[in-house]
Amino acid sequence: MQTLWYLTQLFLSLAFGAIVAHGIGKSRLHRGTALSLDVILYSLLFLMGVNTASIDDIENQIMRMGFDALVSTVLVTLGCIVSASVLGMLLSRRVSSSQHARQQITWRRLKTPLLMIAIVVAGIVLSSLTDLFVWYDSSMITIVLYILLFLVGMQMVQHEVDLLSLVKSPLMLLLPVSTIVGTYLGALAIPLLTSYSLREALTLVSGFGWYSLSGVLISGLGDPQLGAVSFLSNLFRESLAFILIPLLATLSRTSFSAVSIAGATSMDVTLPLLKKSLGETVVPLAIAHGVAMTLVAPFLIPLWYG
Length: 306
Prior knowledge:
This protein is mainly α and 306 residues long. 76% of the residues lie in helices and 0% in strands.
């Protein structure tokens, strides 16, 4: 019952943001919403770092958490490739991939995830070496998270995200379902290679590449160590997607695998690479897929955690 109420609060935060954006007008406060979203997001990541510092023997845990995150990333990526390939064979649909290209690793692409990592590390270091955050309570993360989802709801309306596209075509729903199945298929093997239980494995991979949310949400639920691993795992997922998307575009019969491994990032961060590697036709599918994964992540994480 507690988990259901928590999920309801998350949904209401998202919905209230959408309602407010409709009320004030879609074309207003774009810049203010984006700036506020960045401030809240970075605040959440810093608090996650502060929370992570409370883990017992954190110095010796860091390497282990990095290894666990890398293992989970590889497993869920393989799971998504398998499930999306099966979907492609079942639908027998071929998407043109004539515009293959190699995306260069640039500072512009790297600076945001590196900045986020730096903010988390700053939270860990300052909390470990000073007494500045003795006032901190983990419940504060939950409050700030509601504000984040409120702003996300506003931004979706301001960017005129059309949720009806998710139901107009069966494929718009089938591919996100395939991504969820593939992600959880990979998660089934995580307990075999790490110390995490199946429930914990399912929780940490449910960010679907949305690393900035998954880490703080799990930390706010009361497990900063699992939150840190989830943050790293979903961050690695995005990074691995940049490497594999051009390769899958060349080798795969459909675009499904390339879109699936990108998870929630297929609507924004990895969208230019998907477009460049697979052509214009993949754009609507990639956006709808990313929107769907973004919507389900905040609800599936606490569902598995509870």
